[in-house]
Amino acid sequence: KYGRTPLLWAAENGHEAVMQQLLNTDRVEINLKDKYSRTLLLWAAENGHKAVVRKLAD
Prior knowledge:
The protein is mainly α.
């Protein structure tokens, strides 16, 4: 719904381990945007998840 993927959900909620597992599959798009053009980085930053932001910035 709303273009939200498991990866977006993990970034938004600060689930770094889940996000890393999804990224390790090479089946997810790191530059994806939801229906409102919000990115993984935006979701993580707005919710104060610094570790997730650092991981995405690498």
